Each structure stands twice: as structure tokens, then as C-alpha cells.
Amino acid sequence: MTAPPGRRERKKAATRQKIADTALRLFLDRGYDPVGIRDVAAAADVAVTTVFSHFASKEALVFEQDENFEHRLTQAVTDRAGEPLIPALHREIHAMVRHCAAPDRAPIRHMIDSSPALRDYEDSMLLRYAESLATAIAADPDLDRTPTVCRAVARFVIDAYAIARDAADPETALGEVFPMIEAAWIARGFDEAAQA
Question: Phi-psi category of 82—alpha, beta or left, where left has phi over 0 and alpha has psi -120 to 50?
């Protein structure tokens, strides 16, 4: 059982969230490009160094759930307790899509789509997710696949997220894409459900 976070960790997490919320409000009010890190720091009543101790770049302020999403994806592989891989990933991608495609996130999506810097950052972030996911799949001894298969399936899963997030009906999109991913996974190995 994990111990609850201590006072220092809670304070650090609260500061991080305050910075992210402040940055997002400023970006949506004034536009992404005109707002600088100094503006965010001043509005959040923290030092510029404090902003950078929580976020590596201005772009990272927009994607404040980045590390959490990456961690949850790899956990979907490592913590699935006998559940077949693709359904476990489908469930996690569904949760990510629900978060990112929620109606209140539409202005943020528009801001990202309108900014080359944010689109580039998001592209590199999704590539990193795919690499982390491929590494987690390859490391699981129950999922005896080649590194190429692990990387391909990880990329398919991350692409499914991007396709569904931008679809008019994200749930239907995931429902269409994931059976194809599962068929490809099974075609290149064994049916985990049959082996259980």
C-alpha cells in the first residue's frame, strides 16, 4: 500500500497545479504566443525559477497531464494482472480520450491546433508515449513479441488516441480502431485470452 503524500509533496503538487491553471487561463484569455513565462510566474505569484522547477518549457504548461498520461499507459501494461493487453490499453486510451475530448477542453484543443509550437510539442510527446509503451510491452515476459511488433502496436495505440480525440464521435472511433489493433496483435503472436 502506498503511503499518502506528505505535507511537502501536497504543497508542491498544489503549486504545480496553480501554475498550470494560471498559465492555461492566461493562454486562453490572451493567446498562447503573447504570454511569456514571466507573465505566468507573476500571475501565479511565484518566481520564474519555480515555474521551471515544475515545467521544463512553456509548451509543457499546456500539457500538464503529460507525465501522468505516460505513467498510466505503462501501468496499463504492467498492472493488468492477467487481463489481455489490448483491452487494458483500450480502457486507458478511452480514459485519456474522455479527458482530452471533453467539451470544456475544446478551447484548449483549438489553441493547440492553432500553434505550430504546441503541435510540435504534442507530436514529440506522443512519440515518447509510444516508445515508453513499446518498452513496457517488450519488458513483459508474458507478451513474447519482437521489439518491432511491440513498437508497431504501441504506435497504433497512440495513433488510436489521436484519431479518437479528434473524431466527432470519439467512442465510435475507438470502437472501430481497437478491434483492428487487437487483430494485428493476435496475428503476430498468440491470443492471450485463449492462453489464460
Answer: left
Range of the domain at 118: 66-191
pTM for the structure as a whole: 0.85
Residue 183 CB: number of other CB atoms within 10 A?
11
Indicate the burial class of 87 (C-beta count within 10 angstroms; 0-12, 13-18, 19 or more). middle
| 180, HSE (Cβ side, Cα atoms, 13 Å) | 10
The shares of helix, strand and coil residues in the chain, as percent rounded to the nearest 5, are 75, 0, 25
Residues 104 and 49 in one domain: no
Whole-angstrom distance, CA of residue 104 vs CA of residue 121: 22
Tell me if 2 is assigned to some domain.
no
Q: What amino acid occupies position 175?
A: G
pLDDT in tens, 134-174: 999 999 888 878 889 899 999 999 999 999 999 999 999 99
